[in-house]
From TrEMBL:
The keyword Transmembrane helix applies. This is Multidrug efflux SMR transporter. Keywords: Cell membrane, Membrane, Transmembrane, Transmembrane helix, Transport. The chain crosses the membrane at residues 27-47, 59-78, 84-102. Belongs to the drug/metabolite transporter (DMT) superfamily. Small multidrug resistance (SMR) (TC 2.A.7.1) family. It is found in: Cell membrane. The keyword Flavoprotein does not apply.
Length: 104
């Protein structure tokens, strides 16, 4: 169950990062509120996951999910342009996240 908490925490990290961009510097109240709620949920789920998962495992996976998810959200929602070399490193990041989980 703690792995599910960790996955959800990472997904909510993507939510708050995305809505923070959409808040335009916290000038749009609805997206500002969504950002704060996303942060609280993300941190609460991470805290729940780290009750039994080691921090040295949970934190890098949480940040990795957030990083890769935010990149994908940026490309899809905001039209961010990513070079082929950058995609290569994103794939390496995914491999690293899977490797951390697999070696735990």
């Amino acid at each position: 169950m703690n792995w599910i908490y960790l996955l959800l925490a990472g997904l909510f990290e993507v939510v708050w990062a995305t809505t923070m961009k959409m808040s335009h510097g916290f000038t749009k109240l609805n997206f500002t509120i969504m950002t704060i709620v996303g942060m609280i949920v993300s941190f609460a789920l991470l805290a729940q996951a780290t009750k039994t998962l080691p921090l040295s495992l949970a934190y890098p996976i949480w940040t990795g999910i957030g990083a890769v998810g935010s990149i994908i959200a940026g490309v899809i929602l905001f039209g961010d342009k990513i070079s082929l070399l950058t995609w290569f490193f994103i794939v390496l990041l995914l491999i690293s996240i899977i490797g951390i989980k697999a070696s735990a």
